[in-house]
Amino acid sequence: MTREYHPLSAHRLQPGARHHQPGQDAERVRVDSPALAVLTDLRQIPAATIDPEAPVDAANRFMIRRGVRLLLVSDDERRVLGLITSNEVLGEKPVQFALERGIKRQEIRVRDIMIPCGRLEVLHYADLIHAEVGHIVATLQHSGRQHALVADMGGDGKTQTVRGIFSASQIARQLGVAIQTTELAQTFAEIGAALRS
After folding, report:
1. So what's the pLDDT on residue 189?
2. What domain range includes position 56?
3. Which residues of 32-70 are buried (b: 16+ CB within 10 A; e: fewer)?
4. Is the residue at 59 inside a domain?
5. How many domains are there within the chain?
6. Fewest CB atoms less than 10 Å from the CB: which of 26, 135, 185, 187?
């Protein structure tokens, strides 16, 4: 039996309508909420990736457009080669690299300043099943990083796959902590204050 489908009613977009941003409607969490409630799950949200040969300034523009501060650097087969954050792009690293090589900033590529795969640490997805948001905040604070990658094992049981990303700023938003600065120490101070209140 064939089911009949009727068209839905179309309406005019109202003047001044805005578009959603990732995390805009993120559910409120508490420090004892499940850690997975604050995970950006790459099975549900496409990873923000960039080619290693892309110019550094293109990486910055892409981060701004996507509303993220971290890009996975990957090849055409989705292999993670490293990552680049807004700290690498906007910090001293590009300036130092350009001075050492005697090149202009426009000539710097993502591969030149990214954190290579061999230096990346990940949390195992299986360890998060019983973890709480407080564990993730403590982990980020202990590592001194704004982000933590989460990996799980592929279907073959041998190959790791980056499954998700924890972000200090995303966690703060979901905890209801207003962050006024992107500096790490301030972020954790604000999260800590919210957790104690």
Report:
1. 60
2. 35-196
3. ebebbbbbbebeeeebbbbbbebbbeebbebbeeeebbb
4. yes
5. 1
6. 185
CATH number at residue 40: 3.10.580.10
Q: CA torsion sign, 58 to 51 to 42 to 126?
A: negative
Does 25 map to a domain? no
* Cα–Cα distances in angstroms (integers) from residue 175 to residues 32, 41, 42, 134, 195, in the given order: 11, 18, 21, 11, 8
Taking Cα atoms as reference points, which of 19, 20, 78 lies closest to residue 47? 78
pLDDT at 2: 81
Residue 82 belongs to a domain:
yes
How buried is residue 31: exposed, middle or buried, by Cβ count under 10 Å (0-12/13-18/19+)? Answer: middle
Per-residue pLDDT, averaged over 164-189, amounts to: 73
Q: Could you tell me if residue 15 is inside a domain?
A: no
The answer, yes or no, to whether residue 24 has pLDDT greater than 60, is no
Q: Name residue, tokens 């055409």.
A: 76
Residue 105 and residue 113: Cα distance in Å, rounded?
Answer: 12
pLDDT at 181: 41
Which residue, chain included where needed, has tokens 């890009």? 71
Paired tokens of 103: 């090149």
CA 30 vs CA 3, 34, 53, 57: distances in Å: 45, 9, 41, 37
Beta-carbon contacts of residue 111 (< 8 Å; ≥ 6 apart)? 52, 53, 73, 81, 82
Radius of gyration of the chain (CA): 20
